[in-house]
Design brief:
Blueprint (H helix, E strand, L loop, with lengths): L3 E5 L6 E5 L5 E4 L2 H7 L4 E6 L4 E5 L2 E7 L5 E7 L5 E6 L6 E4 L14 E3 L15 E2 L21
Parallel strand pairs: 3-10, 10-11
Antiparallel strand pairs: 1-2, 2-5, 3-4, 4-9, 6-7, 7-8
Length: 153
């Protein structure tokens, strides 16, 4: 039997279901994740589209192109602003979930990797993961970003 987990936004208006185990899953310290979450990093869990369903909520969409020329599509609650899910061109059609939005236990999986450690907050210690990357494997910037979006340790 496949495990089904629920989650949603802060106000409870937007709710989702996912089935199975996230793949890939990890921690990202890039500036986009820092700005998107308002935190030092994001704990990411990706699911195949057929393993994700939005149960309720009115979502607002925000899209942009990163310095690597890849598209980001972020879907957040129109009422409280919580990111409910996102899709990154770099990950194909996978649905990304910030793990803090899962109902408890929110962090039910191990961390397989950590990326963009070159912009990791100085106060963070080691994160238990199998792989650690200063950048994202295959990362190549194509667009010169504003200073506020540039990574720096």
């Amino acid at each position: 039997m496949e495990v089904v987990r629920e989650g949603g936004c802060l106000c409870g208006e937007a709710r989702y279901l996912v089935s199975g185990y996230p793949e890939p899953r990890g921690v990202c310290h890039c500036r986009y994740c820092q700005l998107r979450t308002g935190s030092a990093f994001a704990v990411l869990a990706y699911f195949k589209p057929e393993n994700f369903s939005l149960k309720s909520g009115q979502l607002t969409h925000y899209g942009f192109t990163s310095e690597s020329g890849k598209q980001w599509d972020i879907n957040f609650c129109s009422k409280c602003g919580t990111t409910v899910y996102y899709q990154l061109e770099a990950w194909g059609d996978l649905i990304g979930i910030d793990s803090g939005t899962f109902d408890p236990p929110a962090f039910f999986f191990d961390i397989a990797g950590e990326v963009f450690t070159d912009s990791k907050a100085h106060f963070l210690g080691d994160i238990k993961a199998d792989r650690h990357f200063e950048k994202f494997p295959g990362y190549e910037p194509k667009i010169d970003e504003e200073d506020r979006l540039k990574r720096g340790g």
